[in-house]
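SUBJECT: protein chain
CONTENTS: sequence, structure tokens:
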Amino acid sequence: MKNKLTYIVTTILISIITLAAWSTHSFAQEAGGATGFVYEIKFPENQQKEAGYFDLKMKPDQKQTVQIVLKNPSDKEIAVETSINGAKTNMNGVLEYGPIKLKKDESLKYDFVDIVEAPEKIVLAPNSEKTLDIDITMPKVSFDGLIVGGIQLKKADDDKQKTQNGANVINKYAYVIAMVLQETDTEVVPELNLNKVNAGQANARNVVYVDVSNVEANFLDNLSMEAQIMSDKSDEVLYETKKSSMRMAPNSNMTFPVSMQGEEMVAGKYRAHVLATSGSRKWEWTEEFEITKEEADKFNREDVGLVQEKGVNWLLIIGAAIGLFVIILVIFFIIRTIRKKREATKKAERRKKKKE
């Protein structure tokens, strides 16, 4: 490869404490640990159960302020940045409560970020504590189901960069505290919809994405998915991926990747057979899709595995070697022919002299 690839690996330490046996007034442990501070959740009266996160029973149009105590155990002043994020589902079927670039699902009616507010930054003096106020304003209209999100707490400018094996590694340490908001006890049954199947890339590798959505306001637990990719003219399975023990957030989207196993993407028409289960529930689809030549060319150029393989082009090397051999052979015969002509000329001159 002519160009050196630089990988930036971002490691996020997520602390969502969910042990119900813990006291609801205990501080986060390790005297600040890698974050430099600790926190304590002050649970209000409408907390539904003992947990390490907010689980609140609310009313329509209710306004409430909940609190998190932040403590700086060090001898230096620190600033803590906060961010409010709606719960999403990543491509591995894992819930994300922190800031992440994933699209919102079209079924999302009440976004967590529109309901919950907090200061963007809070400064803690050395060996001090402050209370972080988090304001909640519920929708005016009553709803069934859950509104879910997270509050991320991160030390300001805590992007510790180092070099490891020639790659840039950025470590970001943060706490993320989940929050679940609910008004009624009406049971909401999660529902899975297939949106589309399309070509793409995951971690710079060619994949086929199966795009699905949990369109109801409740968690979809213990989700298993199996996806098979075939040509539109054959039942032979070209690519297949299975995954179990996944979970989807309420009203969230997941792009489930089917690996192409390091192969080049080929333009054409395909079929995807998708089977999903959750407990006794089952969803099954067969979806046709197309990979265009433009898509295939683009993703093949960007696939890291293919680029690395193409770094040593054996066909080109063999072709060059054969070409060089032919050139040497031609030069050899030319030189040989010239020498023979010279020898023949010399012999002719000797014979001529002898006759004279």
Summary: The two ends are 71 Å apart (CA to CA). The chain is about 20% helix and 45% strand.
